[in-house]
Write a structure and sequence with these properties.
This protein is α/β, with parallel strands linked by helices. The protein has a single domain, classed as 3-Layer(aba) Sandwich (Rossmann fold). 24% of the residues lie in helices and 34% in strands. The strands form 3 sheets. It has an 8-stranded mixed beta sheet. The longest helix has 12 residues. The protein is globular and about 45 Å long. The two termini are 16 Å apart.
C-alpha cells in the first residue's frame, strides 16, 4: 500500500515513517501534489505552529490538493488541527475541511501547557477506526485543541474535555502522536491503513 506523508515543514517525520513501515506500508515523504493524489492513503503530520505550517503547505501549492482528496487522510497532532477552520494560534486560517476553531488549553498552577504526557481516550461515536481504542493510552504534546463536536470520535481531558480523534467523511485526525504511543498507536495506524476507501 502506498502512503504519502505530506511535507508540512514539521519534525519527527522519521518516527512516523518507521511506524508505517513496521505495519507493511510503503510511505513516501513528499510535497508533490501528484504523488499525494496518487497515494492509497495520505498522512498529514505536524509539529510546530499552525500559521507556519499553512505557509509551508501554501508554498508547496498543496492547500487545494489536500482539500480535494478522496482517499482516507489522517492528520496527526498539528496535522489534525490543520483540518479545521482556524486556530487561536497565530489567529491562523486553516484548511477548512472540518468546521471548528482550535483554542488554547487553559493553564493553571497545577495544570501545565503545553500538555505533554499520556492520556486515555473516551469513545464518543462508534467508528471502525476507534473500535478497539476506548480507554487506551496515547502520548500527547500540544497547547491547542479542538472542542468536542459532532465530528469527535474520541475525546480526552486536560483541564477540560477536548477532541482526541475526529472524522469528517474520509478525513480523520488524531491529536496525539500514534508513532510514539506504543501498541495503541500501532493499532490506530493499522486501523487507518485498513480503512476502506470511500
Amino acid at each position: 500500500m502506498s502512503v504519502a506523508v505530506v511535507n508540512s515543514g514539521g519534525a519527527n517525520i522519521a518516527s512516523v515513517l518507521h511506524a508505517l513501515r513496521r505495519l507493511g506500508a510503503e510511505p513516501v515523504f513528499t510535497a508533490s501534489a501528484n504523488a499525494i493524489r496518487a497515494a492509497d492513503r495520505v498522512i498529514l503530520p505536524g509539529v510546530g505552529a499552525a500559521g507556519r505550517a499553512m505557509e509551508v503547505l501554501a508554498g508547496h501549492g498543496l492547500v487545494d490538493t489536500l482539500r480535494s482528496l478522496q482517499q482516507p487522510v489522517l492528520g496527526i497532532c498539528l496535522g489534525m488541527q490543520l483540518l479545521f477552520d482556524s486556530s487561536e494560534e497565530d489567529d491562523a486560517g486553516l484548511l477548512g475541511i472540518i468546521p471548528g476553531r482550535l483554542e488554547r488549553l487553559r493553564e493553571t498552577e497545577s495544570l501545565r501547557v503545553p500538555h505533554m504526557g499520556w492520556n486515555s481516550l473516551m469513545q464518543k461515536k462508534a467508528d471502525r477506526l476507534t473500535a478497539n481504542l476506548n480507554g487506551q493510552w496515547f502520548y500527547f504534546v500540544h497547547s491547542f485543541a479542538a472542542p468536542v463536536s459532532e465530528w469527535s470520535l474520541s475525546t480526552s481531558f486536560h483541564g477540560s474535555e477536548f477532541s482526541a480523534i475526529v472524522r469528517k467523511d474520509n478525513f480523520y485526525g488524531a491529536q496525539f502522536h500514534p508513532e510514539r504511543s506504543a501498541g495503541a498507536g500501532a493499532e490506530l495506524l493499522r486501523g487507518f491503513l485498513e480503512t476502506p476507501t470511500p
